Each structure stands twice: as structure tokens, then as C-alpha cells.
Protein 1
Amino acid sequence: MPMLKGRTAIVTGSSQGIGQGIAERLAREGANVVIDYIGAPNVADATLKMVTDAGAKGITCEADVSQVAAVRNLVNEAWKAFGSADILVNNAGMEHKSAFWETPEADYDRILHVNLKGPFFLAQAFVQRLREAKKPGRIINISSVHEDMAFPGFATYCISKGGLRMMTRDLAVELGPLGITINNVAPGAVSTPINTALLENKPKLDALLKKIPVGRLGTVDDVAGLVAFLASDDAAYINGSTFVIDGGLMRNYHEQ
């Protein structure tokens, strides 16, 4: 039997990239999937087809995770469609490069709102419904190696991911007694749309690959497999941890 049969997962930012891969993998493991997107519904429909082709049920729901009302509605839609939401994957995220001394307030607000405020209040709405129903659950945040590793020019991104790490540690203690666990998955360089500029710059890509001991970028499937494990009963005793998935990059990285 698939390890997530009968459960329902909300996956934010799941119309493309890592989120899409996670949605498909959880569907293959038997979970119903709530596909969160912003903007183009046809892209979310492509993920929905992947979910249904995997033999699972799914719905799409547009929700800007930086808006509290939107994330509350996202959780409500999951419960309305499937009678519960057992797994939350906070995947939606963004980054923007700028020198620290030139970063405008608007950029700071947008990145922190999507990457940190969103997961905080979505987890809150998710937990409130589980607590009322006296049900256990799993929260899995897609963080980054930059929750721990400096990334000059991306201070806002690093700050948001560092905050996500501390949120995970704190909530592990607070939510554990409710039967709700929370963990981070921290990818390094993964081949996704957010890294398009890197993928198209061969000299820069080759220089990065030399710093990754396994000699390649990560794939969406690499990350999705780890998320599926953390959502399963096999991970019931794992709580408050970060799982770095970077091919050894953090252990071998140095600025030029």
C-alpha cells in the first residue's frame, strides 16, 4: 500500500519546479494533493494532471502565501474538498539579488512575506484545524542551504531562510505534544526555473559543479523523495531537524 494513502497534502508553489515534483511524488505515494499557485491557472492544471495520472485526487487553489486571508482559505479549501489536511509543505519562495546597501524596503517586505510570514501563518491555520479535530500532522518547510550558509547579494533570502530554521526549531517543541511534527528540507543547487540564469551561464555553472563533491546539480526528484519520507509514518520520531540535500556543497563551498 502507498505510504501516504488516505492523507491530504497542501503544497504551496506547486505549479512548477520543486513544488510540482513534490506534488507528483506525494500523489504517487497515495496522498490527495492541494495544488497552490499564483498567476497562471493553466500551469497549475498541468500539475493537477500529474497528480491524477499518478492515481490520486487533487484540486488547484490560487493563494498568495504572503496574504493571511489567502492561506487561511487554502487550508479551508483542503478541508472542504477532502475532509482534512494532514501534510503541509511550505515550498513557495522567492529571491532577488541586490547589494545590502541598495536593497529597497519593498524588496525586503516581499521576500520576507513570501518566505517567512507565509509559512508562519499557513502553519498556524493548518495547526488550528488539526488541533480542533485532535488529529496529528506533518509540516515540511522547503528551506535552503542559505538558512546556514552566507550568500552575498542575497541578504533578504538568507535572513528569511534563517528565520524559517528557527521557526522550525521552536514549533517542534510547541507542536510535538499535539502529534504534529515540523522539519526543514534545505536544498543546495537544484535544477529548477529559479536557477535558470545559472543553468544558462556555463562558466559559472562549471565553477559551481567543481564545488559539489557528487559532481552534479540536485534534481526535483532528489528533494521530493526526502519530503515524501518526512511526510510518512517512518519519520514519526523526526522533529525540529533540517535535512541538507546539496551533494556535499556546504562542506566544500568557498567564495571566489
Protein 2
Amino acid sequence: MASSKEKKDAGVLWEENAEAWSELARMGYDIYRDGVNSPTFIAQFPSVRGLVGLDVGCGEGDNTRRVARLGAKMFAVDISKTFIRYARQHEDASPLGIQYEMSCGSQMAFPDEQFDFVISTMALMDMKDLE
């Protein structure tokens, strides 16, 4: 069994895989996200039009964009600089007004009550110090 020093931090692991994951997802290989997880997640939303939201662990921004298209003003954070780079590239190409920042989900520095809602899909399980 590996000691805690030998185990890699989740942020390091995500960064090491972000390039390949983003490319494969954008090529349509993330069939469960695209066909099941994200559509089901979005279908459960109440109206978010005119609200301000935060996506914690946004990855390359797919769900952030889906929620922004529902009329929310979105902010998004991820621990991987590569994911944030991909998300910003998409925002530059097809602007939705999303602000992406590199940040650890358990150590964000936003003012209290800045957001009307927060989402996080497939990210909380990788955060240490979740509380």
C-alpha cells in the first residue's frame, strides 16, 4: 500500500489527464456524460434565468455552458490549468459571458452570498477537506 507521500494529489492527477480527457470528450467519446449524465442533470434544474451560479470543478466547461444557455450568469472554477485553458478557449470562440478561474474547490475566495446557486458534477469526490 502506498504511503500518503507516494499518493498523488487529485489536482496533479487531473492536470496530467486534462489534455487527453478534453480532446476525447470534445470528439464525442464521453458518451455517458453527453447522453445520460448531463441531460439528466440539466433536466432537473429549476429556472435559473437571471440568477448567478458557480460551477465547482467545471472541467473544460461543458455543464457550465449548458447552464449558461438556460440564462444564468456563470462563474466556474477548476483545479486544472489545462481544463481552464480549454474552457476559456471555448468561451472566446462562442461567448456566453462565463468567467473561468483556476481554483481549488475547497479553497475558493468568493464573497458570501455572491451566488444564487452552486453546481458541481463529478468533482466533489476528488476534493480533500470537502467540509
Protein 3
Amino acid sequence: MTQTSLSWRMATGVAATVLALYASPVMAGNEAEVAEHLIELVKIGRGVLSEQMKNINDPAKADKGFTGDYMSSQVVERFKKSTKLDLRIPNVVPQANLYLALVQAEKEVVDEAQPIINKPGISFKGFIPAVFARRVGEQFYKKSGVRMKLTGIDYRNANNKPDDFEAEVLRMFNDPRHPKGQSYVRNTMVDGKPVLRMMDPEYAGPTCLGCHGSPKGDRDVTGMKKEGWKEGELAGAISVVLPLK
């Protein structure tokens, strides 16, 4: 076993002991940074999956070699490169238990998808980054009480429908006066409890347009109608609702 593998197993072991205990909200003062890191972890996971799409959708292959362990190791490595935070050494990373809970959710979603990922004879499996992110958000909420989801005006899944707060921020993101790429954060109340809400805008890239681009109304590979997006247009946002002390 490599040192990296051993360190990751140790880290996930620490996470497993604290997941059930993570009900305590995040301390005030660093909550915005915590939300930013959670968003970064989701983006990294989606990026790893995006790189695997050709492999996953290869009808000639059975075992793709794309496992939950591969996902989690890649996320941890890339998160360290991006943030300088090494989740393999959780005792030196503030909120490591929370971050590891999200990594664990990403691992579990990939593991649960193994039967379809490795099924030969099918060229499109439907296990796409948007589906991955939605399932990760659902798993992560069960572990942590932190809500994360993709949302947008042109949502396809009812679970991605924006609430009133999200709809307001999406309109702001779509305003040309708003600096492109700038996230929005606000301390507020949800169900009578203090939370931090952060939304990070996302824009249509080349890989989005195959399903969401032109011509508007045509059916994409999933059978859904294309929205007619153009590259660089607002596609939606990652929304985080983080409980606070």
C-alpha cells in the first residue's frame, strides 16, 4: 500500500468517527472560507468525472477502472494543490471533518454508480456531472446538515429549482452590472436558525453546449430539450446553506 493510500485511509477513518458527530454549526469568522472550500470540492469532483466521460460511455469496455477510491484520491490531491490544505492530515486542517464528509459523499456516489458505469454495450450511461453533483449534495446533507445544490433558472430537475433567495441572486448574476464570476454571500436565517448562504455563479462552457446549447428546443442525448445557451452565458450557480453558531 502506498503512503498516499495509507494516509487517505487514515483520513477517511478519522472522518468516519466524526461524521455522526457533525451536527455542530460552523464557528463565525471563517464560514465564508468554509463555504468556498466546499464549493471547490464539488467543482473538483465534477471535473474528475468530466475527464472520465469518454471512458464511462465506452460501450466496448466493461470494467472502467473508475471507482470511488479513484475519485476520492483525485479530489484530495487536487484540493491540496488548489488550497494548500492536505486532507490526508486532517488534524491540521480546520473543518477537516466537514470537508472529508463531502469527499466521502463523492466517493459513495461513484461507488453506487458502478453497475451502470461498468455496464458494456451502452454508449450513454446518464451518469453526468450534473447528476453526480445532485447526488453528492443529497448524500452530504445527510452526513452534515449542510445543503449544497446546483440551481438555475433553466433547471431540469425539480430538486434544482431555485428558492426565493436563489432566484433573486441568479437575477443579480445575470445583470451585466454584476462583476462576472463574483460569488455572493449573506448571513441570514432559515427555519429560524442562523445560516450563511453562498452562491457561486457558473457559466456555459463548451462541454455544456452539447446538451444545453443550440438549436433551442432540439432533443439532446438525454432526450431533454436544449435551452439554447451560448458559451459564456450564465448557466446557474452552486448554492450552499451553511448552519452557523
Protein 4
Amino acid sequence: MHHRSHGSGELRVEELAECGPDCVFERGVMVFHPENIALGRNVYVGHQTILKGYYNARMEIGDQTWIGQQCFFHSAGGLRIGARVGVGPGVRILTSTHAEAGRDVPVLGAPLRFAPVVVEDDADLGVGAIVLPGVTIGRGAIIGAGAVVASDVPAYTVAAGVPARVQRERP
């Protein structure tokens, strides 16, 4: 029997497309397709986080962004996280999904659809939030813990719930 793998995910900082000074990678961080992952200055990546790059799409993480433990970022559709973003533990960001191809096609065999995710500067994603493909989270927005973000969130608003809805504007 023949087995294949996407690789070990072993972190080799020198293989990243870019890695600014003073970045911290805690124990257990896994990185796939590092050649398409760029980190700015002073980025913190928490324990057991997975940065799942993709062979033909880019993941960019801006200066002074903090990423909690056990996060999962998948950048098949492209992922851009701005500067000074807080990402709570257990956050999931997805940039692809399977299309519905009819009952005769298993979901797993259906075509993939790719859509970029953008998290603008100064935003904050609460513990366990899930961000779905095609979403833009505006500058300074706050996403509540456990929220499932399926549509864009305007700048300087607070969104929470499943699905996430804007609750109010920030002062």
C-alpha cells in the first residue's frame, strides 16, 4: 500500500517567503508551503498553531500580530491578516469549500471553490471564532468568542453569534 503526505509541517523559518525580525514561534507550530507564507515584524505564533499554506496562494500576516495557541489558518484562496491583529486561541480561518455538485457526487469529490479572507489592521478575533471563505473583517472590528463569520464585518464594529451579526459600533 502506498501512502502520501502533505509533509511533516516542520517549521523551518529560513523557508518562509518572508519573516521579519523578532517573530516568535512556540513549540508545536506547523507550517505547510512556507514559500508562500510571509510574516511581518514581531509576530507571535502560539503553541500548536497550523499555518496551512497552499501551493499557489499566499498567506500574509502583518507586523505585531498575535496568534494564540491551536489556531488553524488555511490559505488556499489567499489570506491577508493585517498589523496589530489579535487572534484568540483556537481560531479557524478557511479560504476554500466544496461546491454542491448534486446528489450523485460525494461532497468530498465536488469541485473546490476558493475565496480570499482579509482581516484588516487592529481587528480582534475572539477565542474559537471561525472565519469562512470570502470574508473581510474591517479595521478595528471585534469578533466575539465562538462566532462563525460568514459575511463581511464593517470596520470598528462588534460582531458575535452563529452566524455572526453586527451587535454595535465601537466607540
